[in-house]
Amino acid sequence: MIRNLLAAAALALAIAPAAAQEAAPKGPLVTAEWVEKNLNNPKVRIVEVSVEPGLFERGHIPGAQNIVWHTDLVDTVRRDIAPKDKFQALVQKLGIDKDTTVVLYGDNNNWFAAWGAWVFDIYGIDNVKLLDGGRKKWELDKRPLSNRLASVKPSQITLGEPNTKLRARIADVLDVVHKRTDAKLVDIRSADEYSGKIFSPPGSQELAVRAGHIPGAANVTWSRAVNPQDGTILPVDQLKKLYADAGIDGSKPIIVYCRIGERSSHTWFVLSKILGYDVRNYDGSWTEYGNSVGNPIVNVAGTVWGGK
Question: Catalytic residue positions?
Fold first, then answer.
């Protein structure tokens, strides 16, 4: 009898950690509460993709791994996303398999975490979610941070060819401009960038020699889709109204762009993953289009590049 009770108690203790874990929600977002409950879940990989150098090293979600967007997610010679072999090696190193739930998060309200989600989606890894609110929400909640590096067993995952339907090229954009394609362009930059008052946000290294926006593009600044207090994404009904007020209701295909494709990835995530619209991200964005020779632009402010 005592032996049976001891065995039952041992079994209960063994099951307890798993019972505290919860199955990943079906939607594209996970809460900070869910992530904290699943820090030790072997089927979950938490990955930080931030802009600020050294931020991950100073403190990150316990067990999280790091992706450096400008080396890990891109071809460092060509202006392109990471080729399949490079991205596959990264995903294997992170221990991500076909049945893994990947949680991406980062600073700046998940700018580059959303870029990461876009690249993951291009390569067919669809069980990827954003931590709603990213680092901002996690830190506001005073949840734990660690500076220890996680050690994970590499996976043997094999990726397929990239899904080109998620990505727009300049030729696709020009088809819309010249009305050869019936689609909607959404410029998600600030109003000052859109009007041509400024060429780029202060401190930006990637520049274009022309200011303004692509003809016909609606302007819905990416940050309007999040709560300013904690960076969490707005409820669905509010998102639908926000974009519908700008003529974006999902009835036509959508192409989103910004300066280099990172902020527009956030809007791509909101429009495609949360609202279910047909959306492509134009990652060439304004630094490609604004530097292209002879293509039409709208520059309301009339700002002229001074060559400095």
Answer: 258
